[in-house]
Fold this protein.
Amino acid sequence: MAETITIIDDRTGKKVTVPVTNSVFASSALRELDPDLRMYDPAFLSTAACKSAITYLDGEQGILRYRGYPIEELAEKSTFTEVAYLLLNGELPNTQQLAQWNYDITHHTMIHENMRKRFVDGFHYDAHPMGMFISAVAALGTFYDDARDIFNSETLDKQILRLIAKVPTIAAMTYRFSSGLPFVLPNNSLSYAHNFLNMMYRIGDDYEVNPTLARAMDVLFILHADHEQNCGTTTMRVVASANSDPYSATAAAAAALFGPLHGGANEAVIHMLAEIGSVDKVPAFIERVKNGEEKLMGFGHRVYKNFDPRAVIIKKTAYEVFEVTGMNPLLDIALKLEETALKDEYFISRKLYPNVDFYSGLIYQALGFPEEMFTVLFAIPRTVGWLAHMIELLDDKEQKISRPRQWYTGQDVRSYTELQKR
Ligand code: CMC
């Protein structure tokens, strides 16, 4: 029998019965009771703002799937560009489709010279790479006069391809600028992750990308590619709902990602580990967290209340990377923090577990990335997820421009008092 929910308005005695599917019922039921009725839901804790067929997440079970495929299988067997195709198109590509997709991405990696010479060179020498990334993505759109033609699917596909292909180039450019190093042009013979590492680190001819490290980078890209309706993706959908162009919307989503409660957490984890300094200081730090004086960065998640499946894969990848690069000295502190927290009633009762950011920063550091680049590394693959959600939103006939209502708590009407009389 179909499940239903009945809502009674005690003010009027009116009631409405509506279907509940997968624990979701349509809020139009409330409008049926009273068109002015609103649900107060700060931070959207109980609101499903869209239907989506891209990513499935079960926080209680620790499940994450892209288009039905478990993240564990994709991380083990797939590549980032294949996953990008899957997220955008709904199905895995066949051999020919994948070859074409990889070719297309590879041949759109170049950035207009003015982006580098005039735009990026205009930043202050110590500009944060993520600030540069956000601005550069928005600026990129100004180079394409068809950028705003979002209802022409061929044109939109071209922008999507450009964005996915060019975000690693922009990311590497921000790093090279910050380090005072000459820019390295994309190399069409390399894979996505390999090419990115090459643009980051090549100095003269003196750089060979280690295949284990390139694969680790690719796995990290896969793990970060999408995560359903998180803060950045919601930003993407809200901005895209106004029919903004994909470059502006991606820049807006990246701005949300920059926040330390979101994609900025991996950087914050390294700061935290460095500040703790040694394993023996871990218990005292945990006490400060429990007293509300500190936050255990890289712990806790709005949806995962058991474990974050990405954190499990990342921990394994970390050990593979450390075999090549040597141990990260902060790892022992991280392990001790995890061990202490997982045994402590404060964290157990609140269902706080390591999230994707807890170990990713340690890998990034071992790969040679400065902390300021960490969120940029998150933004590169998440660009794919954002764009998949933009396409889905534009195709969804039930969607309109996002425009939540509010619960007004301000002053009632009052008369203006002349300045001299205040
Ligand atoms: N350290 C200490 N206490 C915490 C933490 C933490 N990291 N996270 C949550 N709590 C406590 C919180 O104080 C609250 O306690 P109480 O019930 O006594 O008030 C309880 O746990 C519930 O937390 P919440 O703030 O209601 O949970 P939320 O769903 O609003 O926040 C979160 C989720 C991820 C913002 C939060 O856990 C947090 O700030 N974590 C640290 C930052 C972080 O690692 N962010 C990365 C998230 S994963 C990647 C991404 O989304 O980009």
About this structure: The chain has a mean pLDDT of 94.
